[in-house]
Amino acid sequence: MAAGRARRLLGSLWIALLLGQPDPAGAAARSGSQSLLTGSLVRTFTPFYFLVEPTDVLSVRGASVVMNCSAYCETAPKIEWKKDGTFLNLVSDDRRQLLPDGSLLINSVVHSKHNKPDEGYYQCVATVESLGTIVSRTAKLTVAGLPRFSSQPEASSVPKGSSAILNCEVNADLAPFVRWEQDRQPVLLDERVYKLPSGALIVSNATDTDGGLYRCVIESGGTPKYSDEAELRVLPDPEEPQDLMFVRQPSSLTKLTGQSAVFPCVAVGFPVPYIRWTRNEEELITEGSGRFLLLAGGSLEISEVTEQDAGTYTCIADNGNDTIEAQAELTVQVPPEFLKRPANIYAHESMDIVFECEVTGKPTPTVKWVKNGDMVIPSDYFKIIKEHNLQVLGLVKSDEGFYQCIAENDVGNAQAGAQLIILDLDVAIPTLPPTSLTSATNDHLAPATAGPLPSAPRDVVATLVSTRFIRLTWRTPVSDPQGDNLTYSIFYTKEGINRERVENTSRPGETQVMIQNLMPETVYVFRVVAQNKHGPGESSAPLKVATQPEVQLPGPAPNIRASATSPTSVTVTWETPLSGNGEIQNYKLYYMEKGQDTEQDVDVAGLSYTINGLKKYTEYSFRVVAYNKHGPGVSTQDVVVRTLSDVPSAPPQNLTLEVRNSKSIMLHWQPPPAGTHSGQITGYKIRYRKVSRKSDVTESIGGTQLYQLIEGLERGTEYSFRVAALTVNGTGPATDWVSAETFESDLDETRVPEVPSSLHVRPLVTSIVVSWTPPENQNIVVRGYAIGYGIGSPHAQTIKVDYKQRYYTIENLDPSSHYVITLKAFNNVGEGIPLYESAVTRPHSDTSEVDLFVINAPYTPVPDPSPMMPPVGVQASILSHDTIRITWADNSLPKNQKITDARYYTVRWKTNIPANTKYKTANATTLSYLVTGLKPNTLYEFSVMVTKGRRSSTWSMTAHGTTFELVPTSPPKDVTVVSKEGKPRTIIVNWQPPSEANGKITGYIIYYSTDVNAEIHDWVIEPVVGNRLTHQIQELTLDTPYYFKIQARNSKGMGPMSEAVQFRTPKAESSDKMPNDQASGSAGKGSRPVDIGADYKPPLGGSNSPHGSPTSPLDSNMLLVIIVSVGVITIVIVVIVAVFCTRRTTSHQKKKRAACKSVNGSHKYKGNSKDVKPPDLWIHHERLELKPIDKSPDPNPIMTDTPIPRNSQDITPVDNSMDSNIHQRRNSYRGHESEDSMSTLAGRRGMRPKMMMPFDSQPPQQSVRNTPSTDTMPASSSQTCADHQDLESTTGSYLANAQEEDSAQNLPTAHVRPSHPLKSFAVPAVPPAGSAYDPALPSTPLLTQQAPAHPVHSVKTASIGTLGRTRPPMPVVVPSAPDVQETTRMLEDSESNYEPDELTKEMAHLEGLMKDLNAITTA
């Protein structure tokens, strides 16, 4: 019997092998061997499988279709068919019938728009009575639609030798039925003429025979459908090149493994292009390749596609003149394939088994299980585990049969099956325990031997009953009271259900077990069976136990969903829990920011809630717990959602500017602080403008990089920049404006850099730390530094570093070795002069400071925590008056200087003024830091240290930087005004520099006015050089209150004005009328000392005692004589002047005055000396403009001091005292200005700018320059006119720039429009250095005479008497500038010329009087 069964099995094995089904045959062979081993006690596995399964079919309407199917079994199976999951009734169907082998024949397929009875999914079902049922894979029947053209061929032309494409687009399912005709004859396809899968026709390398009428035909059964005809004309070769272009580009494809893929690619142009292909940017070899074929026109065909063929394919067309390319993606899909098929299983009742099934595919397949043709629905006893495996718990006899694992994805499906046989309990399972049996059932596998079996266990009780587990205990059977070798099986089932499960004790002799995974408030029936080596014994009596009822807490709320409704709010919804007994009282919604560990909650009454106030663009997790009267239920799973993005809420950080050259500025910045991005930063918007034109703003939008080079700027121009971050929602807030000025000129790179200014080396055991400073000449480009080193010679090794680097550590050196090191700066021209240094590395035994540089040295004991290396290359880049950017390098980082750990850097800085200032510190996590809030024009020192955990470094070497200057931010202080002793019309202004000068003070401007409320442009201004803290102002009006303000200036501009200081000039004027009276007092600055001898001459430079001291002891008689003498002389002079003035012709005076009026414009006049008014000086400060002029071409320019116009007065010839007074004021003013040392001789010789005063946009009509009296006729006449106008406008030049420099370039000049009340400026001449002039003598002019009207050298003579001697008349010429400061006192105006005969008479008379005075004084 067994031998016959074996022969039948071998026969079936041969059939299976012949039909190509090795796996089921293998199973049959195994079952046969099992039957041979175990004899008739064990039923064998029956071979039952499909020989042929149906495949997908494409058909056309009216055609006949066969769906193939054939199954094998010892007993002929019954074949049935399902369509779309429903069995077909083929008995009464006249169109569909079952063929003898099981295939399905469908005659005359029916298909219309509204009736598609044959299209669908078909499945073959094979059944063997009393054995089981298996199902095939599903196959799809597709019926092609009605013939319809979506595009038709169009008339076209093609040059001979080029390619053309004729379109004929149809539905994909109709494309196989398309063919082409030329002139109504079928087109023969070959390697030159090719039909694409879409239906289009490609004609390549066109010849004359390709011309004609083309049409495409759809032959899908029935009447063929023709497209329109289109003519293809073949043209001769073009004579001129034609642009290269694609007429058909490849499109992306999705194919299954094993299919063919065609990428069309047709390009035209002249010369005719050559087509080649790349895959994933690698050249694709088509020649000689079995699977890659280049078709007509350059299209690519890939046969038998594999997964490895997926990627990006690029068609490249090249005709020698141009190259174009087009890309397409190939996606390869894989139908499901089995990595592990289910295996046949033997088992006993009540056992737990697992069918294993592993599949692969692309897309990932899903798995379902079928038992005997019916879907397995997961339940308490049938469970899907590990995604694909089927677990069956508590087997019963009805579980026998065929189980199939069916895997399917979008591109196919497959099935694999196995058989389950349940043996009787008295039949041992014939093989070793397979892996598909669970540990709870393994004890059944021990083979039984003959012998007495144990009796039933006694006193089975439940000692512990809970909601979901029960503990059972019992006593040993009566047959075996010791029970040491007995094992026990506990069978249990729910009451009313016949499917038992089994649990085994863990070791022999154990008489208790814990049954878990039970249901609450459920009745279970338990029985216990003892087993010895002979087999299982009797069963105990059934024991019914009910598990405890579980407190009915709510289950998890189903369908919890969270959706972001705004950047700061999320709405969470859920449904009422499915489980739970009792009314839900409320819900608690828990939420937590991702990455945090603190959870927040809120009580909710309904089924939804919106949480506001969340962070923007941040992930949050949400869960819900329902509450009833018993308490909280089961929590839902967390749902995670991210709030919506928004514009950033903070500007970028650390915006710094680096001027690269005269036309570009590099910007660096950091992203906004973490937590303020409010979304994904998509870029940065940079806005910049000229500081001078704030309305003209340029925008530049860059990527996500943290730097941007702005080019195309103007030279020497200050620009302001600001940066804002972008998200998809818009632009965030921008940084503050940061300014930088482009260079006036680019650095020089026409020569190599100069030698570095210093080189320092620090030897260690195996390394040398090299530090240096850049060349002193910063105007030559330095691209980097070359470090050469070697033992005894610096040429063994060379290392190049960046131009910003100032430190480098040469490593891997030999200990105790003498190294020579050289350093050279280089640029694109070449390397500069080297700097040499030598050093001897330390011996191995020297461990001092090794820990600082040699990390993890094996011979160096490193304490814990060991110090870190300090940062190196600390640099201070000055950005503005209050900002310095500090950068450094960290040698303990990788070469890319990328920080990946939690280290941070501490930057400290201080200034040494005052000396006791404390350090300020700040922390940074990057290799740079922006130090802000510094003082302008202040030297700071900076150093950096690094900290990582408990380890930190020492402070680095210091870097220094001086902030840029800023305009003074405080006014000059301690402003005081005092009257000059003996000179009521002269005051002295004193002050102290501003406390916040913010730079070197280059000058001061004194404003004064008689009206404190006047507009500032109506105040008189006096400039003072920056090194002076005192200034004299002369010719003020007596008994008049004046108000004074002072303003300081540095290279950046003007500072604020001081508060107004009031001063009232005194009433007395005697000192002006009798200047010699001061000789009896003090020889102070500006007064004349007593003559102590006929030959006395003060030293050059006239250094007088600043405070005054008696020069000779005079008794009262001598003092009286001097007073009387001076009085007599004064009276005589007044009489002479009065007589002389009366001789002047009034008509001539009026004519001159009228002429001057016509030149100078309108004037204000003053009636007499009683009507004294403040100076009529209108200087419009807001309209002042300094304009440069060239250096005066005159070889002997007359450089003047800084007189300001005092007043305009009309003096009649009768008013002799006033005439004398006016001349006295003019010349004493000039003398006092000299004595006050407002400017040195070097200043007069050098740069003496003048104030520019353009009062409108017209060109200046009169230019006042430093001009000698030998000027041309117009200048001479205007100057003379100014004098004979009785000083209606006082002469002088204005010192606009008080810097005393030797350079005479960029000298501003003053342009005055004549119509303005300022009148014209006349420039007085300066006496020569060689004249015999005693600066201690009075300088009152004696006469006023009309000047000659011809441009010749003006010669002035005067009789000047001293107290001790007389002097002959003295000529005064003006050939050159003076060499002595005191000689700036003026005898007369440069334009005051006299007739020689008249002057000689008057001076001779004066000499006689002076001789008499000499005799009196010598007596």
In short:
The chain has 1419 residues and is mainly β. It contains ten helices and 91 strands. The strands form 25 sheets. Strands 12, 15, 16, 19, 20 and 21 form a six-stranded mixed β-sheet that branches.
Descriptive notes:
- The strands form 25 sheets. Strands 12, 15, 16, 19, 20 and 21 form a six-stranded mixed beta sheet that branches.
- 10% of the residues lie in helices and 35% in strands.
- The protein is built from ten helices and 91 strands.
Can you give keywords for this protein?
elongated; mainly beta; 1419 residues; six-stranded mixed beta sheet
Q: In percent, how much strand structure appears in the residues? A: 35-45%
- Structural classification: mainly beta
Amino- and carboxy-terminal Cα gap:
181 Å
Per the principal axes of the C-alpha atoms, what is the gross shape?
A: elongated
Q: Could you tell me the radius of gyration in angstroms? A: 57 Å
User: Average pLDDT across residues?
Assistant: 75
Q: Low-confidence spans: pLDDT under 50, at least 5 residues? A: 1-40, 437-447, 849-864, 1070-1114, 1145-1394
- Strand segment count: 91
Question: Which bin fits the share of residues in helices?
Answer: 10-25%
Distinct helical segment count: 10
Report the major sheet: 6 strands, mixed
